[in-house]
Design a protein that fits this description.
With 192 residues, the protein is of the alpha+beta class. It has 4 helices and 11 strands. It has an 8-stranded antiparallel β-barrel. It is globular. 36% of the residues are buried.
Length: 192
């Protein structure tokens, strides 16, 4: 599993209906993308659910690097670049994945955490796997993924929820659409 996200932070007075309409128009295009596990089309609106900004910030879980590269370099990503400019694309390597019992994702939570110097990595990663599995067992959890950026030494935990009161800390997003052609093929548990 490989995680990826880009964020488009928009002006405070931006009409977020433009983003919702764009997702309604193009969201289905990745519903059968080869190599994609899950793409959550996410947005935050200033003043809602604690958000200080208007933002469009899709989050991806890839089953294959080839699928990700075909998305980035094969033309699909260019439409977003043409509309909004080229965003920085963050990537993390997978640590853990767990499925919850929830059926429909309405909200997402992303929590980024630094890995402090001197941290015993194998113990931290084992704790991260355990926490992903614990969260996936919470009422309303749809899925939980954890990944690490070993360049910045940052952990990211991403979770999808049926309801707007998720039982975890982090930035809360609304899910506008979910493309999940390879979700069933994402390896469960620890990713090594």
């Amino acid at each position: 599993m490989h995680a990826m996200q880009y964020e488009l932070t928009l002006p405070a007075d931006y009409d977020m209906g433009v983003v919702r309409a764009r997702v309604d128009r193009v969201g289905h295009l990745l519903d059968d993308w080869d190599g994609l596990g899950v793409k959550a089309y996410l947005s935050r609106e200033r003043g809602r659910y604690g958000s200080p900004v208007n933002q469009y910030a899709p989050f991806y879980l890839w089953n294959t690097v080839e699928g990700m590269n075909r998305f980035l370099w094969g033309g699909a990503f260019q439409g977003l670049v043409d509309d909004f400019g080229r965003p920085a694309v963050r990537q993390w390597t997978g640590v853990a994945y767990a499925e919850g019992a929830g059926a429909r994702a309405a909200f997402a939570v992303r929590r980024r955490m630094p890995v402090p110097p001197g941290t015993e990595l194998s113990a931290l990663m084992a704790e991260t796997v355990d926490e992903a599995e614990r969260l996936a067992g919470e009422d309303g959890a749809v899925l939980v993924a954890a990944a690490v950026d070993p360049h910045r030494w940052e952990l990211v935990r991403f979770s999808l929820w049926e309801h707007d009161c998720p039982k975890t800390d982090g930035d809360v997003f609304q899910v506008l659409h979910l493309s999940a052609p390879g979700r069933a093929r994402i390896a469960r548990g620890r990713q090594w």
